[in-house]
Amino acid sequence: MSDLILVVDDDEDIRNLLTFNLQREGYQTIEADDGAIALELVRSHHPSLILLDIMLPRVDGLAVCRELGKDRNTDSIPIIMLTARGDEVDRIVGFELGADDYVVKPFNTRELLLRVKAMLRRRGQSENEDPLLRCHSVCLDPQAHKVTINDKPVELTALQFCLLKDLMSNPGCVRSREELLSSVWDYQFEGYDRTVDTHIKRLRARLGDAADIIETVRGIGYRCKG
Amino acid sequence: MSDLILVVDDDEDIRNLLTFNLQREGYQTIEADDGAIALELVRSHHPSLILLDIMLPRVDGLAVCRELGKDRNTDSIPIIMLTARGDEVDRIVGFELGADDYVVKPFNTRELLLRVKAMLRRRGQSENEDPLLRCHSVCLDPQAHKVTINDKPVELTALQFCLLKDLMSNPGCVRSREELLSSVWDYQFEGYDRTVDTHIKRLRARLGDAADIIETVRGIGYRCKG
DNA sequence: AGTTTTGTGTCATTTGTGTGACAGCTTCTC
DNA sequence: GAGAAGCTGTCACACAAATGACACAAAACT
Lengths: 226, 226
What we know:
homodimer, alpha/beta, Rossmann fold, Arc Repressor Mutant, subunit A, 2 domains, five-stranded parallel beta sheet, four-stranded antiparallel beta sheet, 12 strands, 40% helix, DNA-binding
């Protein structure tokens, strides 16, 4: 479902910083601390994107870049280079190498995350397509963060919205409480099953007459009508 | 929609570097590797800005500058000169030439981009044909940098204007604080979420009765009525 | 019946937002 | 220059809303 990102840097602190932030944004991550391992991991895991430091032991970042560019299986994987000095950049980017973007250290985390997001969206590999979701009289607009029933707006809290969006994104599919907890709530929320029930109740209350688009599947979970 | 920038340099690597960065910032680019071609392209494409190296084959940068300055169709196009040595600058800045700014090689990419941005903003030629943005009683004119409510002018600071423009450019869409920070503030600004709140407050205060076109989406961000 | 599962109401706690205050800056004015 | 005025980013506080946990009622299944 979510994108896998390979983080390559020999500095463990930087890897931790990056993976922490990426995971918080819902990405999966793998790590390498030198270029040779990076190449192996790319071939075995096919990440959706690579964050690549230039200065690496054994095989350096530029070489990794060049190597990946030669292989048809890997040449379309977007690479964001991490570089220590601004003037290194001038020699690197856009040239014979396959780097698609770069960020100069010390980088701003928010900027980096935005670039990652933008890159994945551009490649159309992200789940970032936001069509309107419809189910009977209910219509959910992810961009505007709005829900309407028969074109009449309904007020939902952020959590209710996410919950409904999850259900409507999987019409006809049963979603177990565990699945909902892990997808709607934070990645490591020590949740209590019944919390889901409570929110389903609140969501149904807000949906009023349209509450029946959410079906209870006894013993399993909940389902949005398909 | 976006500005077209002509990049003139005989060094292909530098052209690549510049076009890469400009495109990343959303500009369109065309390239020339000598002065004669540059002049042709200016006349055929009417770019919004020119990045011009001084040392060029055939017709050099200074001559291009002078040439463009003579023609009423081209004399208002801003030119940023790229120059290798500091002492060349003295001749440029004398300004019998039409150069509006200059950057010394090896230049810092971010600095150059900022100058480009600033120049286009100053000339008000940015975002060719910006339509008026309207939302209920509020009308925002990006070119004139003016906002009116029921045709009565409202004083906004630059930041408030940018913020409102961002919101009104995405009517009905929720903009998260992160998105606003990265789009309204500088990319590198290590912002603090609540700063956005403060500016929203100030913006609403200026908007008076029309403040309700900016909706708070709790837990998500802000949205301009669609 | 009994057992399991789900729905609902309540409540303490957490979280998010609006707001005023303030210091550091820049810009303007004299 | 000096001083005033305005803009900006940060913070602390108060208030309102949302959340998560729990108890108990209701429903579904055996």
